[in-house]
Amino acid sequence: MADEGHYTRRSGPRNRQLRVGDGEREAVAEVLRREHLAGRLDNDEFDERVARCLAAKTYAELDELIADFPADEFEAPIVGSRGWRFSPLPFVLLPLLVAAIVVSHGRAAWLVVPFLVWFVVRPFFWRGFGRRAVGPRGYGRRCRPYGPSV
Q: How many domains is the chain built from?
């Protein structure tokens, strides 16, 4: 589960009582080495944590070893990645909408309602619902396949 030698408190399964493999242990040992070189651990504490890391059996035990370190850039949440983006499409369609209303002598004024719903109301709702559709760790919801469950 460790991502090419990278381990965070959010990596791995949600059930933190599951057993870990050698890859996860080595990834946490690398985090401990990095924090030791950064001066956050003295030699004795580093040796103790590495010994506990190599003896760890569950993800919870590994999380406990790195819980007091600051979150690194890989673990920090991405802020503003799905923010508002400018779209020129409403401004392209707006003159066409006005032309249709003028040419139809006002009978096409009903087109304003779908235009406003599509380009004004919908983005606000989709932006709000889009964040909730993703789980707390950033993974999408799992959907069951069609057919009999196996």
A: 2
